[in-house]
Amino acid sequence: METTIKPRSGTAFILRKGQRLKVIDPEGEQVSDIYCFNLDNKEEFLSSGRSLDYNESVAFGKGSKLYSNQSNIMLEIVEDTVERHDFLLTPCSKDTFRHFYPDEEPVPGCYGNLVHAFSEFNIPEHYVGTTFNIFMNVEIDKNGGISVLPPTSKAGDYTTFEAKMDLIVGLTACSAGESNNFKYKPIHYSVLDPL
Amino acid sequence: METTIKPRSGTAFILRKGQRLKVIDPEGEQVSDIYCFNLDNKEEFLSSGRSLDYNESVAFGKGSKLYSNQSNIMLEIVEDTVERHDFLLTPCSKDTFRHFYPDEEPVPGCYGNLVHAFSEFNIPEHYVGTTFNIFMNVEIDKNGGISVLPPTSKAGDYTTFEAKMDLIVGLTACSAGESNNFKYKPIHYSVLDPL
């Protein structure tokens, strides 16, 4: 059964060790930010720095592992029809809207939506760090310059993660214009029991 | 007056708004990791994701600003004779030693040294995130692969940061072999009052 995350919103839920989370881009060119906590220890959470270090690459795809701040594997990518994601950039937020789109009314963004969703699990705001940005297409040029391009994901494309510990997972349909080719679309997901 | 950080160690100290921190590589090819907290609110700390996002580059040098998780500028680079640093990778730690150097006895590394130094300010371990790695030379190839190369810093090279708020700063002489061309050297620093 697929659950819909409405455009520019987010949710949080428990994902048990061995369960798989399939994140689907139903219309194409839509980013979804993911962040997670160890269900049994909220001081253990996803770490971009540890994951980039152990992955020895900024490119993530099938077989890539996402690590916690305690160097444990939280999620592994087990299926991926896109193989183009980002783990450098902060989730969009009121602050990023003010910075990049000063003429627009700022919205909570993925950060605000995740903070709200995680608050149901009594997780404080400052525990929410840099997200893994599924389907986000970030290019680094030879001088180190970062560009955000439209996602390469087409309608129906998906990435599936397997939980390596019991987790609280937060997941969004991203709110930032540039990241989503300036159209705000939903994200679908399904939780699959262990094979 | 220059203070010495002995090889494979770290320290923490208060840096007031407007003060400048000059970090010197006295022998060359030595990395120094820096992390910081808002002195008045320890829930506000350095964020690699926010800094990469607002900097729109993985390359940092004179004029670059380092942001907090609350999107405020904590430090600005005001002098830089090296212009080659890293903000992608986690500080070295017992876990990274186990991962990358499984045949060696693991040492606390920059992470352990920072956690210890910050504990004097009652900062909990899990608040210590991805450091800005001064003089660390990280190359990203066209496929996204990350390589750690010897620093380009020569004896006497330095980078100076100006504090944009009152800070608790942690600073190390890095402990990882590959990052420092396999020789563990000291780091010098001095705190300069506002111009």
UniProtKB/TrEMBL annotation, chains A, B:
Domain (DUF1989) ranges: 4-168
Entries under InterPro entries matching the protein: DUF1989
Which superkingdom?
Bacteria
One of this protein's Pfam families, by short name?
Answer: DUF1989
Q: What is this protein called?
A: Urea carboxylase-associated family protein
Q: What is the native source organism of this protein?
A: Alteromonas aquimaris
Its organism's taxonomic lineage begins at: Bacteria, Pseudomonadati, Pseudomonadota, Gammaproteobacteria, Alteromonadales
